[in-house]
Amino acid sequence: MQAMFSWLCAVEKEEQVAYEQVVDDSDVRSPSRLGIRTGVDDSVCASKALEVLKQGNTRFVTGAANFSRAVDPKLRGYLASHGERPLAAVIGCADSRCPVEQIFDARPGDIFVLRNVGNTCTRADGSMVGSVEYSVLHLKTKLVLVLGHTGCGAIMAAT
Question: Nearest Cα to 52, choosing from 107, 10, 132, 15?
């Protein structure tokens, strides 16, 4: 199975952001101040977010992803108390063979994941549209990525 990328970049002008990391770089999947992306972190420009997602996908494809790594309860506490500030919103298929967080070797707080059959987003689908709007307007994500995959039953059934 292959994953295909298409993206809708920056709602706002992209800018460079400096990050203060408080944990070892080898344990950080995305830029964060507390070791996990929370509401205290600045938004990340679309190009930087895409770079981080591509690096995570490379780890996944090469077998270097770390799915078994547990997230420290202290980091989960930061996420619970400070809210989330994800790098990107990813619209993906509901197909269980396409686990978005694993495909990008992401941790909680890194990606705002939206899944439905065929990864479609129509005007009639108010919930999906509203969720993307929430991610962009409230969570300040600058990248919305639509993740497709080969062999999608919903797409084959519709054609």
Answer: 107
Q: Which helix (H) or strand (E) holds 91?
A: strand 88-93
**Pairing, β 88-93 against β 111-116:** parallel
Residues 47 and 9 sit within 8 Å (Cβ to Cβ): yes
- The pLDDT tens digits for 49-78 are 999 999 999 999 999 988 766 678 888 899
Q: With a threshold of 0.85, does the pTM exceed it?
A: no
Spatial distance between the Cα atoms of 40 and 92, rounded to a whole number of angstroms:
27
Tokens of residue 50, six digits: 């895409």
Contact by Cβ (8 Å): 9, 87: no
Q: Which of 138, 45, 34, 28 is nearest to 81 (CA)?
A: 34
